[in-house]
Amino acid sequence: MTSKCEIISVGTELLLGQIVDTNVSWLSEKLNDVGMNVYYHQTVGDNYNRLLNVFNQAQNRSNIIFVTGGLGPTEDDLTKEVAAQLFQTSLSLDEHTYNKVQNFFELRNIHMTENNRKQALYFEGGYIFHNEVGMAPGLHFEHEGVLWFFLPGVAKEMKWLVSEKVLPFLNNKGLTEGKLFHRTLTFQGIGESTLETKLIDLIQKQTNPTIAPLAGNGYVTIRLTAKANEELEANGLLERTEEEIKSRVGDFFFGYGDQPLDRQLIQLLKEHRLSISACESITGGAFASTLVANEGVSEIFKGSLVSYTNDMKSNVVGISESVLKEEGAVSQDCAVFMAEHALHMMGSDLAISFTGVAGPESVGLHQPGTVFIAVSHQTNTVCNKFHLSGGRNQIREEAVQSGFKMLIEFISGLSNK
């Protein structure tokens, strides 16, 4: 089938100029890269009748249609409802997505309103692309020989779904030219904007392979995609581009793949046969909760003590009154004592501690976002001070991710000795 693609952007905010539609240019470029011809771009507001008219027009003139936006939980997110009418099908609940939405709210202690259920609906008889970087999944439906793809309007989510799910799907159907080969490079200790600045000329002149930076939770990945007829040819293209990237930001290179930091840590602990324990204050058990969400964590995780108040720090952890009075609970001395106490009390090979100010009020001279994290091992204990930003829960989450990264770097240092 010769591709005759159309891209439809949904959202009144796009028509009002409140948001610049960068999705359409990015998606057009990616489709062009794999030999798929884009014939039409359309933008339509959040109006049922106008959406239906636009969808009908696209159905009659194109054979592959991409729709971005309108998949959220609010009343004006009408994309799926309108498309279901066109396709003469019903919307069903995807339990995987629904559980993910529920967990998102539960972990943040936020009440989930009923309208969030909309994000888990899919077309009966269609196909779901599960979204690993957001809530709403990507959807696919074939109607009267026309292939429809529905994607979130959030750029990060749309790009991930296209790169990881939709393009491989199209390639498997024989609708792209050549085969797509991927390689993901992971970097830590450098922000997405800084990394992009160092690679901006490579990104701007990219052809084959393509280069796609993407921020993760505590790390940054670069997704390289090469188009070639054979794997050997693709590997040559990928390796040359990887070498050029590493020549500029190789000091921050961590490894391959975009595995979350908690999974990386668990894998590293298992490889080195090390156990871990924790003593948490500001994180309130979030470090332990994140770890135990993974299967097989009992092999490496001993437990965590939550010492939230000064009384707990004094009476249970054993921090002296003089330290709490002179240095304070938010201090290097307190963090070090907490980590060393967990190490000896739980008999683990490593221990980590978290103490700090989540806000909204300051504690003494420490502003919200001030966090001390200590890692203890039988050979030595290290403590780092962090200045994190965001709201109360965001600071707590960032503290946990900073702790994962600190542990990964500490273990890597042990293995190099």
From TrEMBL:
Instruction: Return the similarity comment.
Output: Belongs to the CinA family.
The protein here is known as: Putative competence-damage inducible protein
Q: What is the superkingdom listed in this entry's lineage?
A: Bacteria
Q: Which SMART domains match?
A: MoCF_biosynth
Q: Tell me where in this chain the MoaB/Mog domain is found.
A: 6-173
Q: Which organism is it from?
A: Alkalibacillus silvisoli
